[in-house]
């Protein structure tokens, strides 16, 4: 055997009390042969429970010595029999892992049914149960009017409700009570006055801006009418506000809100321009148009006579007589 084919290794085993020692082994041998080396004098009953590791990585017994770096330090370790018999976890370690997993605090699970019911029975701002007077905004959110107005006055509205700028952005609604629900302290307290469907989020509902009645979509669909099914007041499609709608429905309501605000702004600008309109004087200033009674005189009326109703008589045509003189007060 040539010396060039020999590999020098360092062996140690703290578990077996084997101090570090240097040995030269033929590169053609495997680690399984190394465990049988008389140099180590290992107990044969422990051979199947022993394994070598290099830099913390277990090595199979079939590993050739020539594949190991020269002057490497091999650790001879005792394999602990666990549940899988692979020298991994022991039973105690497994129990500890399970205990740690189950004792760890888990986040509370949110019940989707409770979340849905809360949106339909409580104020979107205060979280308190809905009590009259109840209002709805342009996007279909439900509020108790008092906390909403208070938040607007104090300017403490959350960012999600900043689209509510004034009383014109909230509409009072009439919720139909379920008979006996208040005394029974039922979770669902309101219903559709036509179909009787519960106001709990399972069924879509609409609020009518004109009269404030809240009616289920099923009733509006089956009893098609241009008037409210409760008070018979006429309404248009734009007067219907879907309550707690989906993202797409809220998007449509928001676009409608912006469109209505744009029309109001345009109308105000036209009115302001009309008020400021007048003849331009020589000095560049505008003369505001003054009201003249003759401009609105009836067709068959004499303009001068009609104007005299709103203006005093001309001083040039007035002649003072003895009978129209006013006597000073207090004179006998």
TrEMBL record:
GO CC entries: nucleus
InterPro entries, A to Z: Rtf2, Rtf2_RING-finger
UniProt superkingdom: Eukaryota
GO BP annotation list: DNA replication termination
The name this protein goes by in its record: Replication termination factor 2
Pfam families the record matches: Rtf2
Region annotation Disordered: where it falls in the sequence: 259-284
PANTHER family: PROTEIN C20ORF43 HOMOLOG, REPLICATION TERMINATION FACTOR 2
